[in-house]
């Protein structure tokens, strides 16, 4: 009985296999613990494969990231090389520009820029770059606006700067009309009453209808009849400087109009208190009349250029 009980407690799985076409069955007993061993082995195998696959995926990600970093490093290296090359080229260009600016300045007798003089091709600072370009732009601007020609004709060469040329060019130093000065600035005898009177400008004799030109760039702020001036024009040249033109026959500009140096603004006449065709010309600083004769340095030549005036 004891042996029988032990046999009944033994748990097994029976696998029936059919043999051939005759229908005979073969019974294969499989102990339960074999099945447990198989399941445990299968689980271990699945876990091992999962671990290997995970490790492989992580390795692929690391390799990909490494390749990205290496590519990025190469790109940064190339960019740095290009920037370094650009910086070297900029230094060379600035040195060349500084040399050119110095040569042009020396040619015209301008003051040399100490910042440029201290610049070297190997150590060029941003301030030196800006200074070099500013001087070149100033030279270009002075050439295009005629300031260079004005400065040379006025003798502004030794120890002068482009700023001096530009200031000279903005001053009303061009004769508004060519002719003899028949009335000087200051005290004189009034031609109408024979008494002493202050003459706030100069009278320039000219033929009736002769063109009157702007002696400098500016804005027309008045163009109308003005008492004894007759038909008059007032131009604001900035920096508190204005010029006034009297006894005109007619106007060629209107208030608010921008005029450039050499533009026609009106025509010589004899309107107002005038004894004959001439131009009454005034220069005022902060609305105070000053002697215009010290500004009358240049005349417009018939060829279209500038020539020294009296």
Question: What descriptors fit this protein?
Answer:
about 300 residues, alpha+beta, Glucose Permease (Domain IIA), 2 domains, 6 helices, two-stranded antiparallel sheet, disordered N terminus, disordered C terminus, ten-stranded antiparallel sheet, 16 strands
Q: How would you sum up this structure, described in words?
A:
This protein is of the alpha+beta class. It folds into two domains: 11-170, no CATH class; 181-308, Glucose Permease (Domain IIA) (Distorted Sandwich). Helices cover 40% and strands 27% of the residues. The protein contains six helices and 16 strands. Strands 3, 6, 7, 8, 9, 10, 11, 12, 13 and 14 form a ten-stranded antiparallel β-sheet that branches. The protein has a two-stranded antiparallel ribbon with strand order 1-2. The chain has a two-stranded antiparallel sheet with strand order 4-5. The protein is rod-shaped. The N and C termini lie far apart (154 Å).
Chain-wise SSE layout:
Blueprint: H1 2-9, E1 12-19, E2 24-31, H2 32-108, H3 114-117, H4 126-144, H5 147-153, H6 162-170, E3 181-183, E4 186-189, E5 196-199, E6 202-205, E7 211-213, E8 218-225, E9 231-238, E10 241-251, E11 258-259, E12 264-268, E13 278-285, E14 288-290, E15 298-300, E16 306-308
Antiparallel strand pairs: 1-2, 3-6, 4-5, 6-13, 7-12, 8-9, 8-11, 9-10, 10-12, 10-13, 13-14, 15-16
């Amino acid at each position: 009985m004891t042996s029988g009980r032990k046999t009944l407690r033994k748990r097994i799985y029976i696998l029936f296999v059919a043999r051939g076409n005759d229908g005979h069955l073969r019974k294969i007993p499989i102990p339960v613990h074999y099945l447990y061993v198989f399941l445990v082995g299968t689980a271990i195998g699945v876990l091992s494969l999962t671990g290997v696959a995970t490790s492989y995926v992580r390795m692929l990600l690391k390799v990909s990231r490494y390749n990205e970093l290496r590519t990025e490093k190469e790109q940064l290296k190339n960019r740095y090389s290009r920037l370094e090359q650009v910086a070297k080229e900029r230094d060379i260009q600035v040195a060349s520009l500084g040399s050119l600016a110095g040569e042009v300045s020396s040619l015209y007798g301008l003051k040399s820029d100490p910042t440029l003089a201290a610049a070297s091709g190997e150590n060029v600072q941003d301030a030196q770059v800006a200074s070099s370009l500013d001087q070149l732009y100033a030279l270009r601007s002075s050439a295009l606006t005629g300031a260079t020609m004005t400065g040379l004709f006025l003798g502004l060469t030794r120890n002068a700067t482009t700023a001096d040329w530009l200031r000279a060019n903005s001053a009303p130093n061009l004769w508004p009309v060519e002719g003899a000065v028949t009335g000087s600035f200051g005290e004189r005898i009034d031609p109408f009453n024979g008494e002493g009177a202050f003459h706030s400008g100069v009278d320039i004799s000219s033929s009736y209808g002769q063109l009157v030109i702007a002696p400098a760039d500016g804005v027309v702020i008045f163009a109308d009849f003005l008492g004894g001036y007759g038909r008059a024009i007032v131009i604001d040249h900035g920096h508190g400087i204005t010029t006034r033109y009297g006894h005109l026959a007619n106007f060629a500009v209107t208030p608010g109009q921008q005029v450039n140096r050499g533009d026609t603004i009106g025509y010589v006449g004899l309107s107002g208190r005038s004894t004959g065709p001439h131009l009454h010309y005034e220069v005022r600083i902060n609305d105070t009349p000053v002697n215009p004769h010290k500004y009358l340095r240049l005349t417009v030549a018939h060829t279209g250029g500038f020539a020294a005036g009296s």
